[in-house]
Amino acid sequence: MALQLENVTKRFGEFTAVDHLNLTVEKGSMYGFLGANGAGKTTTFRMILGLLNANEGQITWNNKTISYETSPEIGYLPEERGLYPKMKVEDQLIFLGELRGMKKADAKKSIDYWLERFEVSQNKNKKVEELSKGNQQKIQVIAALMHDPKLLILDEPFSGLDPVNVEMLKKAITDFRNNGATILFSSHRMDHVEELCEKLSIIHHGKQIVSGSLRDVKRSFDRQNVRIRSDHDLTGLDNVPGVLSVAHSVEGAVFQIDDEEVANELLSAAVQAGPIRHFEIEEPSLQDIFIAKVGKEYA
Ligand SMILES: Nc1ncnc2c1ncn2[C@@H]1O[C@H](COP(=O)(O)OP(=O)(O)OP(=O)(O)O)[C@@H](O)[C@H]1O
């Protein structure tokens, strides 16, 4: 049981938005789909949902082509949040639940559960336009989850949510995964992907440039970070040979290196500059990998 994309290509006229993309999301796993603005993520999601036709390649869910029949199994949070502003929250969710094949009574039960879980029950009879942006986002998330889908496609699910609500949504989608659902989501927040996803892809100009488990992706990136915390000025360390890049902050600095010997040099130089509070060699973050692969301008 899996979502499978084989050699999927989408062209808009002369322009290739998605270029021979291959990916498999195993049942019960969470997959992070990353890429800069315009990389082709939403286009890929629309093809998975059958909203756009691929020019080449094949997309299957449990070995079947996704169609109207499979739609009750799928939950989709679109990037362009498409709620009717004048419609009341409950009426709107009942309507969307019925479109996914739910009976009205089941939809109402599920809506009550999710409104309460997301702490927005007080908005049940309000028009969508009366809600804050974050609360509208929660209603749209409920529309994607309320029919208990087996496959969840979430386009930037955390955008617009405050940190408390981000945690609430993370818990909800993790519960879905733990109950066996298969989840594919896009995000510009590398820390969320790092925390939640077993596997990931980075696409760039429609082409997959990185894919695999988080562990393998990190292992194959032959750079490390040296984090030094100190109250002293560390800018003198920027020119230590072998430092690939450096980020200074109020706490100290993080140096990117590709040779552990350079870490020793940095330690000696830091101690000479003054007392240090912390020294650590860290594995690269997904953010480091993304920036190195896709380019600084997108970070
Ligand atoms: N209907 C369309 N006609 C022509 N070009 C399109 C169409 N839809 C998308 N594109 C182009 O395809 C490319 C990929 O767009 P897409 O929306 O899939 O990117 P994305 O990775 O989701 O970006 P973002 O992170 O900004 O949401 C972009 O260059 C976009 O302009």
UniProtKB/TrEMBL annotation:
Keyword Transport carried by entry: yes
SUPFAM superfamilies: P-loop containing nucleoside triphosphate hydrolases (SSF52540)
Keywords of this entry: ATP-binding, Nucleotide-binding, Transport
SMART domains referenced in this protein's UniProt entry, alphabetically: AAA
Domain ABC transporter: 3-230
GO MF assignments: ATP binding
Pfam families, A to Z: ABC_tran, DrrA1-3_C
PROSITE patterns membership: ABC_TRANSPORTER_1 (PS00211), ABC_TRANSPORTER_2 (PS50893)
Domain of life, per lineage: Bacteria
UniProt xrefs under PANTHER family: ABC TRANSPORTER ATP-BINDING PROTEIN, ABC TRANSPORTER ATP-BINDING PROTEIN NATA
Family: Belongs to the ABC transporter superfamily.
Protein name: ABC transporter ATP-binding protein
Organism, as annotated: Sporosarcina koreensis
